Amino acid sequence: MLRNREVRRAIIACLIVTALGTAAAYLITHSAVLKALGDARVTAAAINGTPSTALAASGSSGAHAALLAAACALATGLIVTVIFMALTNRRYRDLAKMAANLDRVLAGERDIRLRDMSEGELAILSSEIDKVIARLNLTVDELQTEKLALSDALADISHQLKTPLTSIAISTELIRDRLSSRGDSEDLVERLRLIQTLQARVEDLVAALLKLARIDAGVIKLVCGKVDARELVRRSFEPLAIAFDIADVRFDADVQDGASYDGDLTWSVEALENILKNCMEHTPAGGCVSVRVHEDVLACRIRIEDTGSGIAEADLPHIFERFYRGSHGTDTASSEVNPTGVGIGLALSKSLVTAQGGTLTAENLRGEDGKITGAAFDLVFFKAIV
Length: 386
Prior knowledge:
9 helices; alpha+beta; Heat Shock Protein 90; about 60% helix; 3 domains; two-stranded antiparallel ribbon; 5-stranded mixed sheet
């Protein structure tokens, strides 16, 4: 309580007023007693001709009376100050309890009761805060219900799309096999192969949209466990190994021994795989995509670099926005159905990393001459919130 500047000022003011009141009580009482004694001496002298010895002896008792009055004033001031400190301390304890309850509410607890049926301004404040919290909880529940409804709707749409897409894939494969066996429709076979590729990409797009909706709705529950960085890089690159070979893009990894962080391995693989795929698709043949992982006292840091054309400066602030399509280095023909091209892959990675308490940022790499030599993505998983 004494750490509060206003309380300290109030107590100092009380002590100063008490001291002044004590001094004033002493001086006024002493002056009044002396005046009364003086008048008594004059009266006694007029009657008897000499001052009374009793009146002379009572002169010292006047000082004692003044001291007694000053002591009473001092005691009264100290008692008032002590009462003020006690009441202020009680009020501060109530405020501290209310602040602790609010902290628990902010931490996610729902069953917090701030109701105080006693009278007073703090009881009124507690009641009003309780009303606000109840309204906020109701709003959160409504938003959560809406998110779950959206997630369920997207799940139903995804399920309804998978059936016709699967039928299209099977029918296309049968037609392509028959045309291939005839040997006189190579152009049609190539077109059917392109249709199959586009159909697979549409399925990826639907799956990515469903994952984003589930993340937003909080349906996906991330597991918090120790994630080995070397295992993360290995599992993220494995599905893309053939694609890297076909694109003639080299993959290089440098992982610090023992580097790890607390998170969800499965969804971390999903996030890193999307970034690696994006880097590969924007790196020309003969280029390289590299991953560097190191751990320090604060965080586990993963840096992905490529030797592509980089990211347009106008696109950097929006690179992780959903459905944002930059104009720099984008293949218009393929981006129509490519989840990465329509701005889903990086947005999904950002959501997954953020859900694990990490950060994901992007920047351009520049050479000594200032020209862009590629793009870089930084994943940082902190060990603790500071």
